[in-house]
Amino acid sequence: MEFDVVIAGGGFAGAHAARALVKALGREEATRRVALVAERNVLVFHPMLAEVAGASLSPADVVNPLRHYCRGVTVLQGAVRAVDLAARTLTVDGGRFTRDQTIGFRHLAITLGSITDLSRVPGMAEHGWPLKSVADALRLRAAVINRMEEANLVADERVRARLLTFVVVGGGYTGVEVAGQIHDLLHEAKRFYTRLRDEHIRVALVHGHKQLLAEIGPKLGDYTARVLRERGIELYLETRVAEATASRVVLADGRAIETHTIISTIGNAPSPVVLDVARQLGLETERGRLPTEPTLRVKGQRELWAAGDCAATPWNDRGEVKTAPPTAQLAQRAGTQLGANLARVLRAEAEGAGAAEIDARLRPFTHRYLGQLASIGARQAVAEVLGFHFRGFFAWWMWRTIYLAKLPGVMRRLRVTIDWTFEAIFRRDISVVLPPPDETMRAIHLEPGEPMARRGEPVRAVGYVRRGRLEARAEDGSAAEIAEGQVVDQTWADAEGRWRADLVATESSDLTLFRGRALELFTGELRLAPRGAR
């Protein structure tokens, strides 16, 4: 299949570019000529994901089906895997049965945003919970509630303390908002857990800079830090996470926080597809973003466009030329301008206009900076609007009012209004509707001295040492080394399917664990722990 315009990416920039094209061309023409390729069939309102994680909002409140929101264009669900500029095609993975589909284009608009890459911190990819999608928010909410359920059950005080400690990494908008929401959820819910009412629940926020919310200014950043501390949230500023494991976070200054829950709001990385496009063009990216002209065309190209987080777009901010920051409000407006310019090009081409006349019809991206807002929990927020600073309850009311107005779709706004009203009257819902994931394989990271398994425990998984070294310590005091490239298998299990040695990391190590059906295939006749044991 082939289209005159293909928009690659279904975020704010892509969706608003599609809507602008429908408005300019009409639904019938846009349906024939324009395709929107999106990895998910919904537009996610990211500023409210923290409220989904904190059980303040339903997941349905923060998504809008792209086929409703962008009615009039052809929406194709699939992940863009490659762009061939010479052949003018995209390779798209639509799922298990529709991989490697080819879509042709004449004009290509790249609005792919960024990806999450947690691999730069050892162990973070294996043990950190990201927050980029509704599925992430639901999994995080379920994990937080499950930690409370386990803490309510366990008798060991050290295990309980780790279960009731939650570490948020990153002091930007998402990090501050999710820390506030998780703190509110935990303290509101703990009264329903009879064995936790007198327990101390820790929420810690780790940030690599001196100030929280650097984009909003030092005064509001300092106010945010003071409010969070007053509410009992621990702040670890000017330090970074060096390593993460299943039971602790190791900070760059040597301190460690014992925890079973790490929430990562850092780790944004350029899309590999965007980097490959730059390589094909011989363009140097700006921190992984494609350089564009003010009209949203990629520099030096006539039929290649970019907007949103993956584009380095010149922005005249009250007389000062900057690169537009990767925020939702700028992505939305850049997408709208991109769609309008594409419509101008299509109309001019249909009229037989030359290159110079087409260029003259294009309009540069302009945007008046309106400000930024962040909710910090307990009905408090900070806001910078048109140069004025607000904080406390009034800022929180502004946050809710402004974001409600920006939420796509009248029905979504009504649903959110109802949910927020119920939240003010009733307790947050602490039911867990997501089943535990059936992971047949899982990657883990161990620090020196941390065990993969203890002697006498049922064999629930066997492991392959990808990096590092373990030691098997038997009851009689003997020890054996398990080196990189070796397997921790039934050799160290007894006839009852229990470990007969402590399996402990002697250096920083990465393993792949095989569980469930994969474990059964791997171990053969080994007697296993009962199905469902965890």
Residues in helices, as a percent range = 25-40%
Whole-number tally of structural domains: 3
CATH architectural grouping of the largest domain: 3-Layer(bba) Sandwich
Shape: globular
Mean pLDDT: 90
Q: What portion of the residues fall into strands of 2 or more residues?
A: 25-35%
Which structural class is indicated by helix and strand composition?
alpha/beta
Number of strands: 34
First CA to last CA: what distance?
48 Å
CATH class of the largest domain: Alpha Beta
Determine the CATH topology of the largest domain.
FAD/NAD(P)-binding domain
Give a quick account of the main beta sheet: strands, pairing sense, barrel closure.
7 strands, mixed
Instruction: List the uncertain runs.
Output: 525-534
Using only C-alpha atoms, the radius of gyration works out to 26 Å
**Number of distinct helices:** 15
Give the topology, please.
Blueprint: E1 2-8, H1 12-25, H2 27-33, E2 34-38, E3 42-44, H3 49-53, E4 63-65, H4 66-69, E5 74-77, E6 79-84, E7 89-93, E8 101-110, E9 114-116, H5 124-127, E10 128-129, H6 134-153, H7 157-163, E11 165-169, H8 173-189, E12 202-207, H9 218-230, E13 234-237, E14 241-244, E15 248-251, E16 256-258, E17 261-264, E18 268-270, H10 272-281, E19 290-291, E20 304-306, E21 311-312, E22 314-317, E23 320-323, H11 328-350, H12 355-361, E24 371-377, E25 380-385, E26 388-392, H13 393-406, H14 410-425, E27 441-446, E28 451-453, E29 462-467, E30 469-474, E31 479-483, E32 487-488, E33 501-505, E34 509-514, H15 516-523
Parallel strand pairs: 1-2, 1-8, 2-5, 8-20, 10-17, 11-12, 11-17, 12-13, 19-21
Antiparallel strand pairs: 3-4, 6-7, 7-8, 9-18, 14-15, 15-16, 22-23, 24-25, 25-26, 27-34, 28-33, 29-32, 29-34, 30-31, 30-33
